[in-house]
Amino acid sequence: MPSKKALVRRPSPRLAEGLVTHIERERVDADLAVEQWEEYVKALRTHGWETIEVDPADDCPDSVFVEDTVVMYKNVALITRPGAESRRDETAAVEEAVAGLGCSVNWIWEPGTLEGGDVLKIGDTVYVGRGGRTNAAGVQQLRAAFEPLGARVVAVPVSKVLHLKSAVTALPDGTVIGHIPRMDAPSLFARFLPVPEEAGSHVVLLGGAKLLMAASAPKTAELFADLGYEPVVVDISEFEKLEGCVTCLSVRLRGLYA
Length: 258
Ligand SMILES: NC(=O)NCCC[C@H](N)C(=O)O
Hints:
Blueprint: E1 5-8, H1 30-46, E2 50-53, E3 70-73, E4 76-79, H2 91-100, E5 104-107, E6 119-122, E7 125-130, H3 136-146, E8 152-157, E9 168-170, E10 176-178, E11 192-194, E12 204-207, E13 210-214, H4 218-226, E14 230-234, H5 237-240, E15 251-253
The structure holds citrulline.
Citrulline (CIR) binds next to loops.
């Protein structure tokens, strides 16, 4: 049976120094961030996910955004080479964690850069954002890693947000959801539902009809509830101040059999 394991990583005490690129810097409350992170982890656990904590990286302010360090496809863990140089030390412990879970490990190599927030998987289609953090060599290396395993890799230009998944994710039935003002090319997605809030474009599929969402997207939560989904809402305000969202705080390992 496919596993319901998810990697998470405790926030660094230096979280407030995390990168901001497309938004104004705001003061981050580190204690509140830890509380919010614990609630986020609790929400995963409550919905049947076994959470595995990657060893903390106290010197890496952005390490809580663990999604950016590894991309899973089937049982292969592709260790990224973050486009942000300050994030490159984050990957070593993640590699150890996924290897310890029995994943096959592959890597993005120089000159490639790629961050997990740029990768959206819908079945065997793997969308990859080519933007500020993921370069063309990173896209090529992702193709080389996953196409032989059966993936179809679709590259998507990203210029208005940090990562592809800052503006686009997908519902359990594969419908792509996105916030059009922050997307470069909505027409690339065949079955597409626009959402009224930027934070509404981020969902983590918890299983069945349950969608983990940020409290900052109440209109979109209402829209999804009206479509028969069950939003599970968490407040992640302190991570949003650093351009984080619900997707980037975990990596679900769905292709492992355990
Ligand atoms: N996948 C994600 O959405 N990651 C968010 C990363 C935020 C972090 N402050 C960064 O700029 O790298």
